[in-house]
Amino acid sequence: MRLPGYSSLCAAAVVGLGGASGMSGVGQEHPKDLPAPVLTGHMPVEEAITKRRSVRDFMDVPLTLKDISQLCWAGQGITDRGRGYRASPSAGALFPIELYIVTAEGVSHYQPAKHRLKPHLTGDVRQALQGAALDQDPIGQAPLCVVIAAAVERTARKYGSRAERYCFIEAGHVAQNILLQATALKLAGVPVGAFEDVKVAKILKLPKDQRVLYLLPIGNPSL
What we know:
Blueprint: H1 11-18, E1 32-33, H2 45-51, H3 65-76, E2 78-80, E3 85-86, E4 97-103, E5 106-111, E6 116-122, H4 126-132, H5 137-141, E7 144-150, H6 152-159, H7 163-184, E8 188-189, H8 197-204, E9 211-219
Antiparallel strand pairs: 1-6, 2-3, 4-5, 4-7, 5-6, 7-9, 8-9
């Protein structure tokens, strides 16, 4: 992470996330089911922790749908169907965190309950997002950026004035899970917390009750 503050896919698969090129309004396309997440991997968590590094230069290679599925699951995937628990801990199991996946083809909203992506915006907004993030190159260069937002009021109904703090803590849990999963997939990323909140929310056309807390550009590291 550089400064304090609030705050891919295979060629054939990319099209399914966004649609036609050129920025447009909120997407109306049908949700896209993601491949089932892999629950046993080849890299121990200790190795992933050791190898995780902040990387700011990425190859111009889109991520596969399988990789995107795994990253979404690591951040907010359902790990206990009976009780609805997710991969990251949440105060009161209220789960205020919302994930948005930004690629060259558009922006999609991750829906944990059905493990799928719902198209949100069509068109490449990465350069606009980079501009709203103090022109940090990784945002525009990475083939994928995970946007971590929070509906703070969802937590405030139970925890009042401490809700904001709990959402910040939860965003940290989610980000670390995603970055460790990226490492295990031989990908890399960097957490970005320096950006203009209002501009980012406007570019992404987020609901008014959601607040952007973190940006995670992710891709294949440049050699």
